[in-house]
Specification:
The protein has 2 domains: 3-52; 64-374, Glycosyltransferase (Alpha/alpha barrel), CATH 1.50.10.10. It is 62% helix and 0% strand. The chain contains 17 helices and no strands. The protein has helices at residues 3-14, 19-35, 38-52, 64-68, 71-77, 96-101, 116-126, 129-143, 158-178, 186-203, 206-216, 220-237, 240-256, 273-287, 294-309, 343-357, 360-374. Helix 9 crosses helix 12, helix 12 (220-237) packs parallel to helix 14 (273-287) and helix 14 runs antiparallel to helix 15 (294-309).
Length: 377
């Protein structure tokens, strides 16, 4: 390499990198120059520049409500809203919590009330006030069991179960505010906002946070769930401390991804929980597009979905082979059946990401899955 070439490279780097990073690059280049021939140096410099260059990410400016309204989500996942209410009784208790009320179970779980999110958002998209009211009733039953410190009285799996419910409520309220019905449901948003804020603040109280994070350790998807719960509540209420804690959870999750794109669950891969985690990470991207971590989250999602595509069989069925949690591995909360690789989160994450990125290859995967499970055209 000639002196002139070296100076030209330095000038190029100086125009694109901060001084500290530039010094690190120069050190690497000088070291390489001392130990390699000229052609190898040129190739190595090119790689260094490529690896450190900040490549802009083009994301949609659509709102979350608009992403939720995309064809496959609106017309497949929200197609039959009445079915989302089948496990709820008139007082708002849902699924395993119905058994608890009837003294048929020792435990109840606040997470079972999170399905009010689907009822309300689906109802907004389909202009179905009855379904929306059913979702509010589900939330009401949950908050009726909240105590003064923001937690939920004797719920099972306290931290994890609460994070599910907090995410659901915060996400729902934000989507309501973006919808054509924001004024109509403004009173409900005002009612739930301080309640979900208290629950999120409870999650980050020192003793609770430490124990919760420790219990979450084997499950990568929980990092993105916790991040979404805290970040969306922070966005809703203006609480920056919640967003800082969300950052911690995101960074932890990002550090766990394997080179092949797997976000491990209990030490292995799981084609069901892979997309559950992606779903929550996608919400971070939508609400915090300019955050310092967002480019890394985008890369994680791309790699994760690319791996998930390898689990889609030619028929469109999602393979559960080798899964560590779903497909005859773990049972649902009421113990009635094994957890399945449900198609909902797969269709949602592929279709949502197509809407966010404008890349139709993701929608093609969503449609393939929908044709198998829902017999769509």
């Amino acid at each position: 390499m000639t002196k002139k070439s070296f100076l030209l490279i330095l000038r190029y780097l100086a125009s694109r990198f901060p001084m500290l990073l530039l010094l690190q690059l120069v050190t690497q280049i000088v070291f390489i120059a001392a130990t390699h021939n000229s052609s190898a140096v040129n190739a190595e410099i090119y790689l260094l520049v490529r690896e450190n260059k900040q490549i802009p990410i083009k994301l949609s400016v659509k709102t979350d409500f608009e992403h939720e309204s995309t064809d496959l989500i609106a017309n497949v996942l929200y197609r039959r809203l009445s079915g989302l209410q089948k496990s709820m009784i008139p007082n708002g208790a849902n699924a395993a919590n119905v058994l608890w009320i009837r003294n048929q179970s020792r435990h109840w779980y606040i997470e079972e009330q999170r399905y009010g999110e689907d009822l309300i958002i689906g109802g907004l998209i389909k202009n179905d006030p009855q379904t929306i009211e059913a979702g509010f009733k589900m939330f009401d039953w949950g908050f009726a069991h909240q105590v003064d410190d923001g937690s939920f009285f004797r719920t099972g799996d306290r931290f994890h179960s609460t994070s599910f419910f907090v995410q659901a409520v915060a996400h729902t309220l934000l989507v309501i505010q973006q919808s054509p019905y924001s004024e109509k449901y403004a009173a409900q948003v005002a009612k739930y906002k301080p309640l979900v804020h208290r629950a999120a603040r409870w999650m980050i109280s020192p003793n609770i946070w430490e124990k919760g994070i420790k219990r979450n350790k084997p499950y990568t998807h929980r990092r993105y769930l916790v991040a979404a719960a805290l970040a969306l509540t922070g966005k809703l209420t203006g609480d920056e401390e919640l967003i800082k804690y969300a950052h911690k959870s995101l960074e932890d999750g990002l550090s766990l991804q394997r080179p092949d794109g797997v976000n491990p669950e209990k030490g292995g891969h799981d084609s069901g929980y892979q997309t559950v985690g992606i779903m929550y990470a996608q919400r971070w991207v939508t609400y915090f597009p300019n955050d310092s971590l967002t480019s890394k989250v985008v890369q994680m999602i791309d790699k994760s979905l690319s791996w998930e595509k390898t689990r889609i069989l030619p028929s469109g069925e999602i393979s559960s082979e080798g899964n560590t949690r779903t497909g005859q591995q773990e049972r649902i909360r009421d113990g009635s059946r094994y957890k399945k690789v449900g198609p909902g989160s797969q269709i949602r994450t592929f279709a949502y990401w197509a809407s966010v990125t404008g890349n139709q290859k993701w929608e093609e995967s969503a449609r393939k899955i929908a044709r198998f499970y829902y017999k769509t055209p």
